[in-house]
Amino acid sequence: MMRAFKVGALTLAALSPAWGQLISSHASTAAAPPSANAEAAQPPAKPVARVNGTVLTDRDLMREEYTIFPYARQHNGVPAAMEADIRAGALKMIEFEELVYQEAKRRQMTIAPERLAKAEKQFREHFPSEQEYRDFLKMETNGSAAALRTKIARSLLIEDLLKLEITDKSVVSLAGTRDFYQKHPERFQLPESYRLQTITVMPPVRPSAKQPNPPAPTAEQLAQMGIRAEDALRQARGTKNYEEFGMLAEKISEDDYRVMMGDHRAVPAAQLPPAIAQAASKLQPGQISEVISTDGALTILRLNTHTPPRLQTFEEVSKGLRAQLQRQKEESLRHELDAKLRKAAKIEEL
């Protein structure tokens, strides 16, 4: 499933995602049929599911699909390869929202008139003009401001119940975060790493998808590579800092890192070729290696930084870790709520 149980936002061009679920085209089985004008504006909605007798339509489904895959408009719809998974995820999502709404009604939860009026005002402000708002109203609610108000109230009830059952219950304390950090130190261990710049002389024929194992360079080609590498080393040792070495790499290096001043950023020692790791371990920051032969190429290193392995401090990770633990708890509670509501519901997918 592309997106697991997260209240969806309906991404119409005139609206910000935060207001999405306010205009879900939820339709009760008791709802009045649309007018002739509304039917002319767009095809009638087709049922895709019933949740305890309440009909959810293909418009609800399409909007949720566009929330999951927001690039659908640029792609003229959902790509065929993703369509089945996105549809399944969107269907479960709109069913979940309807179940949450019905649970809020069962608990007799209400929205204060002042809050509803404020939300309606904020919603209208997302439209650039009054005419665009009226066009939207005509298309979505057959011109009924009261019907739109009902949809806004529905959205706020969903929001309130999710806050009560998920958001408020998923708060992770600083003490809880510290406890997790202390119990799982292996997750916060940073490996030894080197930040390197390179100048590389490549063999005449490089590995490629069509030729993953090209012929080895001839003795003459190897000799020519050696001459170029020694000349590159002479020039490299004439550089005085990161910028000068980088400019030289841009000029004479033959590998793809030349466009980044030869800078490989920080690389874990375990991911470096053995010959490169061994050479880097003997350098001090700012020093330049001898010519190193590895993987058929000849490379010159400049060591910028060596970072020994270390445990990240709690202060370094606490903010991100706390947010991560809270997201995980929210997701777990969301799944639990979905399962609980579905167990007591009658859901028909049409």
Q: Any idea of the CATH topology of the largest domain?
A: Triger factor/SurA peptide-binding fold
Major β-sheet annotation: 4 strands, antiparallel
Biggest sheet: strand arrangement: 5-4-7-6
Mean pLDDT: 85
The ordered H/E elements are: HEEHHHHHHEEHHEHEEEHE
Instruction: Please report the distance between the alpha carbons of the first and last residues.
Output: 19 Å
Give the overall form: elongated
Q: Name the beta content range.
A: 5-15%
Helix content: 40-55%
State the CATH architecture of the largest domain: Orthogonal Bundle
Q: pLDDT below 50 for ≥5 consecutive residues: which ranges?
A: 1-40
Oligomeric state of the chains present here? single chain
> What's the tally of helices?
11
- The CATH homologous superfamily name of the largest domain equals Porin chaperone SurA, peptide-binding domain
Number of strands: 9
* Total individual domains: 2
The Cα radius of gyration reads 30 Å
* Assigned CATH class of the largest domain: Mainly Alpha
How would you describe this structure to a colleague?
The protein has helices at 36-41, 58-68, 80-106, 113-124, 130-141, 145-167, 174-183, 219-236, 242-252, 274-281, 314-343; strands spanning 47-51, 54-57, 189-190, 193-201, 263-268, 292-294, 297-307, 310-311, 347-349. By secondary structure, the chain is α+β, with helices and mostly antiparallel strands. The chain has two domains: 17-174 and 322-349, Porin chaperone SurA, peptide-binding domain (Triger factor/SurA peptide-binding fold); 192-204 and 219-308, Chitinase A, domain 3, CATH 3.10.50. The strands form three sheets. A four-stranded antiparallel beta sheet has the order 5-4-7-6. Strands 2-1-9 form a three-stranded antiparallel beta sheet. Strands 3-8 form a two-stranded antiparallel sheet. α3 (80-106) packs across α6 (145-167) and α7 crosses α11 (314-343). The two termini are 19 Å apart.
